[in-house]
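One-letter codes give the sequence; each number marks local geometry. A record appears below:


***
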Amino acid sequence: MASQFFLPHGLLNLKGCGPKEKIFERLFQLLEPMAHLLLLFCGPGRLSSPAERIASSIYSESPSPSNFRDSSGPNLKWTEKFRWVNIGFERGIFKQYSIKQCLFNALRGFTLKEILRHAREVIQIEAEAVQGLLDRLDENFARAVQLLLACEGRAVVTGIGKSGLVGRKMVATLTSTGTPAAFLHPVEGLHGDLGMVTAKDVILAISNSGETSEILHLLPSLQKIGVKIIGLTGSLDSTLARSSHIVIDVGVEREACPLGLAPTSSTTATLVIGDALAVALMRQRKFGEKDFALFHPGGSLGERLSFRIKDVMRPAADFPSLTSDKTVGEFLSVINRCGADFALVLQANGGLAGMVTDRDLRRGEIGSPDFLNRPVKKIMDPHPATTEEEVSAAEAMKTMVEKNLIALPVLDKKKNLKGVVTLRDLLNLRDRGEAAK
């Protein structure tokens, strides 16, 4: 039986393998999804009752906007697209939506796939750009780190446009990790801000082309000041490269921008080199956790770094404990009564003999008939990971995460048990600190 559709140019009969059907099938292949959108503009159509019964059998209930969208993706046959669009008009599905929304729904499957494909292309191109830096990293990078380490002044970063934004981020990372740094806008530098630069400073000049006019106009004055220049550029034969004491190659094969114009891969590569410089300097300076806390006193990060274990630990008496001669059954009774995941195993004098957790229990021979009657010392950890009172909360959390622990016994310098800190305590550190205030 023919399926009939009312289109602007009159009634079109689509038969099994007729030439018109082949034309429309080819139209969907070439102009997908524009042929689908054409029907949305054509106004209400009417399906023959056999076709409507076939379409209705797909869903037990009347079509809804959501299942229409699910049923109109690019994988459906073109005949089913006709069928669902016409049912949509006939049953008033589109009355709830504007034409713009209907068009969006029709294009949704096609558009989402295109968006994701383009996004993956960008990520792939930029990942390749970063990977390419590894092959070009040479002694110039090491020399730049040594120059910055020996600098008696500041690292002064300059760049304009996207390079300037990358430079500002570079300054923020350097200053927070122990390297004094400042940003010099090249245009402002030409109008007086060059006065912030001294011969004791080191300039990091960023220009992908190496021919940025604003940067080049600064060079004669910088040379007169006698400041050392590290050039970050993608063109090793550029004016900036020739004028720099050290050149770091941040070039990329191509930008992720489809026009090849907007700085994308190049700014990512420069940003990565900036992070590499900051971290290399951080390691050479042996910049530690206490130093980091000094520069980050605010926010949850600052709180976590400034707190010592002695500030957040709880007394050992707050946690379930038992002696090593107790049985596994007694251990289960203790932790169930307290709602805990572990118990401390104590010596007669109150010292720490070990620790047993529900994880140790699962590692034991639970199916054994005498399992519950076994001494707890058979399944406990006699040498559990511990921490000390003066250790930072951040370091304790790192230990617990790396070793997959839920609690750490806290010992003093004489190895006496002073308390316990749990992972939950550390995760809730910010709230605990605010409550204490």
Summary: The domain at 137-287 is CATH 3.40.50.10490 (Rossmann fold). The first strand starts at residue 3 and ends at 7. Residues 1-18, 20-76, 93-100, 431-437 have pLDDT under 50 and may be disordered. The chain is about 50% helix and 15% strand.
